[in-house]
Write a structure and sequence with these properties.
This protein is an alpha/beta fold. The chain has helices at about 15-25, 30, 50-55, 55-70, 80-85, 105-110, 130-140, 155-165, 170-185, 195-215, 220-225; strands at about 95-100, 120, 145-155, 230-235, 245. A 5-stranded mixed beta sheet has the order 2-1-3-4-5, sandwiched between helices. Helix 6 (about 105-110) links the parallel strand 1 (about 95-100) and strand 2. Bound molecules: zinc ion (ZN).
């Protein structure tokens, strides 16, 4: 029964051979995940062996392909109950994602990921603090994730709040962590929260500074990256187009 619950990170070249053997469908169909027969051959959750075979670049490529499926309306036919049952015995996530709490930017959904595929830390403005760094260190050093993805998004309310120097309870301190990105953003034009061009430029700079922050403040993650065990990358999710644009 689990075979009906293909998780998208299994939708990769590791499984293509068995997929092709069974279905005889040309290479390329698996990338888009459109063939119903493919549901018969994928395991419900990433196994340790599958995850360990993937390189950081493989995982980034799979996330890009998942975003492509999302944009084309060709998401994997998730059987969440089967994924839940399979993952209950143990987890072998391939990546840890740091993304914003924005309800319109759910990383797993927009990259067509399943239960057990990735860790996801969410905080307004996707900034790193000590607890999030600790979570990432757990994800990579102890649990074996190979990609750290910091994903910002367009039209981010936290970024707008930081630009406007909004003040509200504990939010004031959070927005202060984003302020360096506002100051560091070079931009020709109106530097206001009403100008979405500026807001999105600050959001991207904020992702870059967060990546630098991770490397500077986490010796554990910096060492893993230096030894090529992991990759730390950034991305911007576009609310209008659905595109996750990777960089870094
Ligand atoms: Zn946001």
């Amino acid at each position: 029964m689990r075979g009906n619950a293909r998780s998208p990170l299994r939708n990769d070249r590791l499984n293509r051979r068995s997929f092709l053997t069974i279905t005889g469908i040309a290479t390329g169909a698996t990338i888009l995940g459109a063939a119903p027969a493919s549901r018969l051959v994928y395991a419900a959750a990433l196994t340790r062996a599958q995850r360990d075979k993937l390189t950081p670049d493989d995982i980034i490529a799979l996330m890009k392909k998942g975003n492509q499926r999302f944009r084309l309306g060709q998401e994997s036919p998730h059987d969440y109950l089967a994924q839940q049952r399979a993952a209950a015995k143990g987890q072998y996530p391939a990546a840890v994602i740091l993304s914003c709490i924005d309800s319109r930017a759910p990383a797993e959904t927009v990259m067509d990921l399943g239960i057990g595929d990735c860790f996801n830390a969410r905080v307004a403005g996707n900034i790193a603090n000590d607890d999030i760094l600790g979570s990432m260190e757990f994800a990579c050093k102890l649990a074996g994730a190979k990609v750290v993805l910091v994903m910002g998004h367009t039209a981010c309310g936290a970024i707008k709040g930081a630009i406007d120097k909004a003040e509200l309870g504990n939010l004031t301190g959070l927005l202060a962590r984003i302020r360096p990105a506002v100051e560091a953003t070079q931009y020709q034009g109106e530097r206001s929260a009403k100008n979405y061009g500026f807001v999105d430029a600050v959001a991207r700079k904020n992702v870059e500074l967060t990546m630098a922050d991770i490397r500077r403040r986490s010796a554990v993650l910096a060492d893993l990256e230096t030894s090529r065990a992991i990759k730390i990358v950034g991305a911007m999710y576009n609310l209008e187009t659905g595109v996750v644009d990777f960089f870094g």
